[in-house]
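Entry:
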Amino acid sequence: MIRKSMLLVAVLTLAFSATAAAAAFEDSAWYISGYLGGTLLNDSKITIPGAGGGEFDVEYDFGYNLGGTVGYEFQMYRAELEISHKTSSVKNAIGPSAGRVNADGDVSSTALMLNGFIDFKSASSLTPYLGLGFGFASVEVTDFTVETATEKVSDKDGVGAGQLIAGLSVDLSDKILLDFIYKYFRTADATIGNADVGYASNNFSAGIRYRF
């Protein structure tokens, strides 16, 4: 009798485990995504050598960001590999002696990031989520100059990067989701010319995610 009871318990345990594993498998999937949006690049300092140069506090116009990911979701967790690009044009600059001056040029970053997420799922089609990412970025300054300077700065540097992510996904179907994403992206200081340049930005985007 005891052996039969133990056998029944074992069978029920295996059946429950198989059911749970099947449910977990059904709630997991590979996915790809793409997104496009706007970038607010924080003010930074860039140094121009030569006559009329010096260290300038640089302000930027509203820029853009775009990127794509490949990832895997398992129940409420996701992990993904992301490649992204952000570009902002110089608006103006404040110099060491001339004050605010006209300026020109672009500052961009291209990053490869590994991101992790927690999805706060519910019975509705809306799923808020939070994420964190770490990786590597190439920060590039292209043709930065000011009206008082005789030279331009064009240089790039590869540095470590991190980002905080918050978003909301909307289920359009079982396989297609609409993403609204905010990312605070920051890198270690990049060496541009002979000076360090900080890169930090607030990024807002929308995209499509496809689950396989």
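Confidence is low (pLDDT under 50) at residues 4-25.
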